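Appendix B: complex inputs.
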Amino acid sequence: MPAAEDVFTRRLHPGEWPFLQAHFERLDPASRRLRFGNAVTSAFIERYARNSFDADAVVLGLFVGGVVRGVAELRFISADRGEAEIAFSIERQCQGFGYGTRLFARMRDAARNRGVHRLWLTCLSENRRILAIAKKFGAKVTLLGNEATAEISGQHPGRGSLSREWVEETRAQIFEMIDQRQRRIERIFDPFDSVGDRATGTQARQ
Ligand SMILES: CC(C)(COP(=O)(O)OP(=O)(O)OC[C@H]1O[C@@H](n2cnc3c(N)ncnc32)[C@H](O)[C@@H]1OP(=O)(O)O)[C@@H](O)C(=O)NCCC(=O)NCCS
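Resulting structure:
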């Protein structure tokens, strides 16, 4: 499990659709099927990622070691924006560490803070993991054939949800700034490292 300081969640912006595409491409076949309900092609994933950032969407990325390893999506489904549908995906090597639960909590706060009072999640009924998470957040689960629907109602914004979202977004910005500075410093010192490496016969950093 990565160090806690290497993990943060922040909102993804429209220009970052390639992060979403790359994340979905890295999902193993079983996780992709659980996320989309069936097997999907790379062409579908590219189209889906490009179209995920319209005005009716909130997309959160879970960054682990600087890479988007998890995504939570919200789409408004009612004209008054009081109801929305949510979906989640975590890459296989990061599953089972509590990140899905963390993204769920983050998305619930984001939804509350945008005036959503009812959340819906649809998945395959075999998907015990996401249903277990949804139940932790008070979802009412209905199973119908191979499909399951989880409904979370009675959502209201509060000081807690507003401040949690603010703290997470600010924390993410600070971590990204530190990370970018670190990479800039590494780039500056890289030529010297290579010279040093040549002198000592060690392999240059990639
Ligand atoms: C579903 C998904 C988002 C969950 O994320 P995650 O990081 O693996 O989940 P977490 O580690 O936060 O929590 C998993 C919970 O499910 C529980 N769980 C796991 N397998 C279970 C099972 N077979 N039956 C019941 N509960 C189960 C765990 O005990 C855990 O709950 P706990 O924290 O109370 O112990 C992730 O596994 C994923 O991306 N899967 C593929 C795509 C997908 O299914 N998306 C959801 C459809 S929208």
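Residues 200-206 have pLDDT under 50 and may be disordered.
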